[in-house]
Amino acid sequence: MTGKGIGKVAVVGFASLGLMMFFSQRTESQATIVRLDWTPPKTDLPESLVTATKDLLGNGLSDPRGGTFSKVVVEVGDAAWSGLAKHEVYGWLLPGGKKVVLLDGLTYDVISTSGAAQFSDIYRERKPAAGGMNFSAKSFPRTNMAVPITSPSLATVSLLLVRGETKLAEEVFKPYKNAVFTPALTLFIHFLDRYRMQVGQCMMVRRDKEALGYAQKLAVVSELRVRRGHDYPPGMVSWELDAREPKLLLKDAERRVAHPKQPIDLQSLAKLDQKTRIQILLENLDETGAKQWGQPGGIDWNQDAITNAIIKEGEAAVPALLDHIETDERFTRSVSFGRDFAPGRTIQTVRAAAWSCLSIIWPTARTTKTGTQKEIVTELRALWTKSAKLSGQERWLNIFRDDSGGPRNWLSAGKTLVARNSYGNPSSYPTIGDIRKVPLYGEPLRQKYGKEIDDLYERRIAKMASLEPLKDTSQIYAMSEGMDLAHAYFQWNPAKAMAQLRLVSENALKMRDQWKTHGEYAEEILARPFANIIADRVRSGDPTAASDFEAVMALTAKRGPAAESFKPLWTVPDDPSIQKVGEHVFAKILSHLQSSNRSEAGQYMYAISGYLRVPLLKSPAFRTFLARAINSKGYVGQMWVTSNQSQSTLAYSIGVGGSGSMGLPAGTSVAGISAEKVSITLGDYCAQMATAVKACPPFLGVWPEARRASARRQQIAWLESSEIDWGSVSKSPFYFERD
Asked: Which of 174, 324, 565, 687 could form a disulfide with 328 if both were Cys (CB 3.0 to 4.6 A apart)?
């Protein structure tokens, strides 16, 4: 069984609190370092790699001596989605036939064997270079796992060196000659990632004894790294190797094995008094197994039974949560990651889980200043003492009032007051269809504090969207936040917000002019918030809004505007001046789509699916554009159907090197359709993307050409129809207007 490595994941709003620990009064588990007898051979490999190999042999790097290179089956997990799977791989089968050392340098249990093999068999899926094996990185067989057990790694070099296969080790090392970090550091990082991944995988599937064994190895590798002084060069990366975490993971694993827990009985717990319930829930927070919801993404803490139960206890849990954030050094069974195909994994702490519960129960806790863990908790305790008896709306108003709070906190407060939900948490929204019926969160404050809130919006916007000589992109983001706050003010008081809407529009356009000589980043950053501002101005009857809209879109069209940039087009579909701007922009996009440069065309083709995920079909300009695109000729790529036992999928390749897949439209039959690749035109591609809209006439890119041509004509007629309620048609399950 295996798992994947670890990467640093910040806890939003709390910096790295989830990984910050106090150790002064704790006894640390000690790593036991062993020394195996091995005399390094003469070699051209870097001396630091040879030394690191000798250090790690038996201390993370398994000993392959005496093993027979074989093809075997092992059970592997990746600590991403927690599943285990059997894989046929190559490694050195140890005497007895029950253990195997794989190419990543770790030892695994053997499920079955297929007999002896040659090292060159690793490359069978790739054609070797003339004259022998191709040791370039591109020649390695690829796997969709971040577990490097199917391809040679730097650990493989060490294994070969230990076995005395020096020449082969030197050949396998070639792709690593120009690595960013030293070979020794890279090797240590490899084993830190691998063993941390293993610990995480075992904890996720509740194999605590196995987790302990891997945690012991992790602690040993970490201790050796510290002793040898292997670390990232100063200033090269924005993260660091944590020498304390492996010791804490070892301590946590020892605790789990020594004191195993039974699953918590939430039904029985509900019968106890609230103070006791909260205490027991927090004691069991180390058992939470909340999963990451996607990639990139984060842990969905409130979907776990234990964390969800804590959240339901509400503000009564705040003092106890603060205690655990301050002192609890345990880990959970939750593992997060950047991408499942990369080795980074983070075994989440109880502190991280407690902080997540706290920030949902008490959202204004996220506005605390940065500092050490003790400083933050001290500030939170003081803030809770002052605000415990206030309503959520009053707490956010106090954040808005705080002149020292800074733009991020002002924006959070300003957006929360106009959020249409019941939690004071801008990230939680009611279901589609209910949004307009829900009053603004800050509505109860209007009668008593309305004038003060108007003044706060105006002062904060003036500060955040002020225009100063442009020096770096941080000012662009600050302007974007100022525009977001102006948009929130429009929702709070449309009649009074016009002056601020015009101010931020004027300053943003001037900033764009300053940025021209530096690139197009300003347009990319400002386009979305600018679209909101333009839509607000149009709805308020501002006759100059269309010209500002065109000024921004004229530049963003160079790189293909994001779907949200077109918001004015669907907000005011009956405004001819706004739709005229849309016609100009879409004409440019169509020109790019029809370009003979396949790379350029491919870049814009990917934007089509995004445009169909927002209500752009309300816009006459967009419907005209889409109809013309569907009528376009010119070969752009291929499309084909792939099938497995459970479903069929439509795959495609477009542009240069671009590819993707999509589920077949509901009710689509592929009976009688071969899996051969079919050449498609731009019109075919756009017609296929349009089928994401439920009301759109059917189309399938693998149909015979005559049938495709007929289906395209039906789609064009549909887009040109004046009898359709486009407001209803454009309601996408992937999008709803939050403001």
From this structure: 324
